[in-house]
Amino acid sequence: MYAVSTGLFVVEPIRHFTANLTVMRQFYEWPKTRMEYNIFFKEVFRLPDFWSELAKKITFGLVAAGGDTAVKLAMWQHIYGGTWSPQEFADYNSYKHLVCAIMAILPTAHLTVPFENARRAYFADKTWPVELRRNYTSPTQALIRIPFEEGPYYLFRGGFPIAMSQFFFWTTYLTLYTFHKNKYFFLWMYNDFNYDLVKAVNMTVSFAFASVIAYPAYYTREMVDLWPKERGGHCTWNNEYRKCFKW
Questions:
Q1: Could you tell me the residue ranges of all domains in the chain?
Q2: Beta-carbon neighbour count of residue 108 at 10 Å?
Q3: Is the separation of the CB atoms in 105 and 167 below 8 Å?
Q4: Which of 171, 233, 230, 176 is nearest to 201 (CA)?
Q5: Span 154-201, pLDDT tens digits
Q6: 142-171 burial by CB neighbour count: b if 16+ within 10 A, else e?
Q7: pLDDT tens digit string along 126-164?
Q8: Local structure of 29: helix, strand or coil
């Protein structure tokens, strides 16, 4: 929870500002002078509901971090933390990282699905006619109301590509990170490299590889949900994520 929430307060405001910047670009041309830049960016902060929506996104991000990512990392620490990795010795720890990652993430990969569905339901609700809206006030309220109004199963609908993407990402990330951390101990122990610097590089490399491996699974959902249908409304995948992924 601490690790994710720390990054959340940095990443979420940037994403929110970028999204509102895109909205401004739809109505106004890109500024060319310093004064125009100053006015343009000030107006982004003055968009309706800018600050209230940012507060809702951060709040929901903290809720999701506690109910999803924190559980994944806690499960990982519970399983991997009880093992031992001797340094300078080739033993079972070469493949132990992958086995522990699978054991920790396989039962927790689906936890992202209800939070993602609640977030999408909140924003989709704004696009419906007034008489059909559920009038969710925030993604967090949508997460609380949906199980009672639509049924608990609603939050897990269409979760195949999300759960698979989460499984690929976290399994790859945790495996690479702990494997490299165990093997490159000599960099900070004997060669006096800064430990935090080595860890930051390790996290960046592991995150990059994990993102590349997990992205195709998440992209499957975009293909089914957002790609235009074929002529006549025909869909090769019959609007099914599994068929799309196999295709």
A1: 69-246
A2: 20
A3: yes
A4: 176
A5: 899 888 899 999 999 999 999 999 888 888 888 888 888 998 899 899
A6: bbebbeeeeeeeebeebbbbbbbbbbbbbb
A7: 888 988 899 899 999 999 999 999 888 889 988 889 999
A8: coil
**Within a 10 A sphere around the Cβ of 66, how many other Cβ atoms?**
13
| Residue with token string 């070469």 | 94
pTM value surpassing 0.85: no
Place of tokens 């399983």: 79
Burial string for 12-30 (b: 16+ CB within 10 Å, else e) reads beeebeeebeeeeeeeeee
Please report, as a single letter, which amino acid is at residue 131.
Answer: E
Query: In the structure encoding, which two tokens stand for residue 171, read together?
Result: 């399994």
The owner of tokens 């930051």 is: 200
Cα 104 to Cα 232: distance, rounded to the nearest angstrom: 45
Amino acid in the structure at residue 161: P
- Six-digit token string for 65: 């971090």
What is the DSSP track for 125-165?
Answer: HTTS-GGG----SSHHHHHHHHHHHT-GGGGGTT-HHHHHH
